[in-house]
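# step 3/5: fold
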Amino acid sequence: MLLAAVGQVEWVEKEADIDAVTAISGSGPAYVFYLVECLAEAGRKLGLDKDLAMRLARGTVTGAGALMDGSEDDAGTLRKNVTSPGGTTAAALEHLMAEEGLQPIFDRALEAACKRSKELAG
């Protein structure tokens, strides 16, 4: 398949699923880039030099992506593997995974992207 030369190719059975695919994969790189911006800004607010914070954020996302790409484990397992009980990661995840944390934000964001994809399709 021609497209496989430039990335992962997935098949969906229903054309209606294309809008959800667009919300995840089509728009997804922007979400990841924004995550890097947020990590860097949080690091800056903690007192790090702006450029150092950005290098750390970029390297973290690049490294995590490479780890996930090279592993057969799912993302949840990888997250658990790098989270020490009672440690710094667990303290942060307590907020990110709270009822009002990241999941409901992503749910609303992807719902908006999917809705917009449908509108653009006419």
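# step 4/5: annotate
The chain has a mean pLDDT of 94.
# step 5/5: archive (pending)
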